[in-house]
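Friendly challenge for the regulars: who can give me the structure tokens for this chain first? No prize, just bragging rights.
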Amino acid sequence: MMLILAAVPVALCLLLARRRGGGLRRIAHSEIQALALPILAFLLEAAFQAASRYVRLPDGALALQVPIQYAALLLFAWRNRRFDPGAWAAGAGALCNFAVIALNGFCMPVSSTSQAAGMLAAGEIYGYALRDASTRLAWLGDVIPLAGGFASVGDLLLIAGAVRLLYAMMLPRREEDAHGTA
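First reply, four minutes later:
Bragging rights claimed.
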């Protein structure tokens, strides 16, 4: 869901950066640090999600995956806190998501009005659980209705921060602007 939700902001980001003389080729020369960390976090989640479709993962799998995944995101945000304010937004989003997931048995609570409520109630969707009266920090769960699903406050902050970081990585550096070099 996050990838779909991020598609429009990323497209706008690409257009705006291009208009300001930037582009994707500048990412390799940006001063961003530890870019492998969010990639690792994404791949870790994708691997566990894919594996859960074919085998029943051990009960402790989420308790192992989630802290590693969010530690990578938080470390990335911390390492880039001086690079761009987007790192703070991404870090805040990661912290919101980690808090609600950790406090709810390492599952993201999802609104009971979700189309997948039956599957969630049966525990058939890896890493997600149906929100109920016992849910802690329910307002941080996937409760914001969107076309095709739900998002969380943390998701929105993560996306905003990531898009802002992408934009900053694509822009020409100030020294290049001052000297007219690319």
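Strands lie at 108-110, 128-130, 144-146, 149-151. Residues 2-172 form one domain. Your move, everyone else.
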